[in-house]
Amino acid sequence: MKLSLPDTVASQQDLASLISEVHAYAKWASHELIKQKVSVKTGTPQPAISAAASQLIRDWSGGKPLTQTSIDSLLKELDEYKKTAPSMTITLAAVAPNEVKAKLVGWARANLAPNMLVSFQMNRHILGGMVVNYGSHIFDWSFRRKLLSAEKPFHEVFVNV
Amino acid sequence: MTFLDIFLLLNAFLLGVVIVLAIQYGLAHWRNEKAPKAADSAPVPKAVRERIIKQAEENFQGIVNRSALQLQSDLGSTGTQLNKLLEKFGAEVLDDEMKLFRDNVAQIRASTQGSLSGAEDEITKQQTAILQSLATRQADLDAKLSQKQTELESQLEASFATQKEQLTARLNDKLSDAVNAFLLETLGHEVDLGAQSDYLVSVLEANKEQLIKGVVDET
To answer: Which of A59, B82, B170, B215 stands 20 to 30 A from B153 (CA)?
Structure first.
């Protein structure tokens, strides 16, 4: 089964956090399965995991009962995803809201690579727009760059004012 | 054999004849003195004989005197002729030598004149070549100077243009920084990215090909 992350899991840190949550859930689930086998009544509460992690586990099991094998295969798939996923960084002029992040990540996964991981940074000096770093490539589409590379020099604009 | 040689040989022959005659007369005279012993037996009287002898002596003396005078005269004329001939020969030799000397001098002068003329021609040729070389070099130097001047003017113009562009770029940068700083101070942290989300997606869409190319290059 091919792993598909939700757009809210955007960056390497998000993925690491998700893996940590899945590990915790897998450990708990393993203990619970053993207790069920030995008919132990008292169980421990399920660890708190994020909605993205819950959704991912549900999607992975496909509605079937969760087994130790499927959880292990999910962890293995997540580790492989982390190793092989391409990564890009988008720098914005302010802290990006989650909806903006999801929109940009969705676009990147739809158009560039389905397993793309996107990290976000903030730099108020760019005024607006964005700067995209991908590997050794830097694409500067910020307002500051537009000001600096204006087609009409400032002194010409000032003359016409 | 020259005339002078022939003349000297003739004189020597005549002188030999005279000497032979004188010896003959001498011998005859000596034989006459010894003859008396035989003459004593001759029938000629002594007085006659003495008179004949005296007459013979006088004749002999006369002949010798005449011969001496003639010889003296001949010698005088010979000496005169010899002097004339010597003067003539000397003059001829002198003329020949002078002529030869003049010819040699003329030849040497002609040769020298030719050499001088050749040297003058060579000097003229060298001067012409040097002048031509100097003119060529001067023309080259003028061309190089002109070219260098043109290059320097071009470089100067290019340098001015570059400086102007740099100054303009710096001015634009300063103005951009000023506007940037103004906008930064004005906007502060109040940049609404939510309002920009559509714009951000449209920027990504507009540069989609460029981004895909970057992804392909990296992979």
So the answer is: B170
Q: What percent of chain A has pLDDT over 90?
A: 11
B175 shares contact with chain A (CB less than 8 Å)? yes
Scored b (16 or more CB within 10 A) or e, B142-169 reads eeeeeeeeeeeeeeeeeeeeeeeeeeee
Q: Where residue B36 falls among pLDDT bands split at 50, 70, 90?
A: low
Closest listed residue to residue B175, CA positions, set A70, A155, A84 = A155
The pLDDT tens digits for B90-149 are 899 999 999 999 999 999 988 888 888 888 899 999 999 999 999 999 999 999 999 999
State whether ipTM is beyond 0.90: no
Which residues form the domain of A37? 12-83
Contact across the interface for B197 and A112, Cβ inside 8 Å: no
- Report the domain count for chain A: 2
Domain end position, chosen among A40, A64, A83: A83
Same structural domain, A18 and A79 = yes
Question: For A26-35, A57-66, A92-101, which range has the lowest pLDDT when averaged over its residues?
Answer: A57-66
Instruction: In whole angstroms, give the CA distance from residue A9 to residue A119.
Output: 10
Helix or strand run (H / E) with residue B74: helix B46-187
A17 lies in the same domain as A79: yes
pLDDT at site B191: 61
> Quick one: A79 and A92 in the same domain?
no
Of A29, A51, A83, the last residue of a domain is A83
Q: What is the pLDDT of residue B41?
A: 58
Task: Spell out which residues of chain A touch residue B191, defining contact as CB-CB under 8 Å.
Answer: 93-94, 124, 127-128
| Predicted TM-score (pTM) of this structure | 0.49
My answer on whether A19 and A73 are in the same domain is yes
Q: Indicate the helix (H) or strand (E) that contains A89.
A: strand A87-92
Q: How far is A23 from chain B (nearest CA, A)?
A: 30
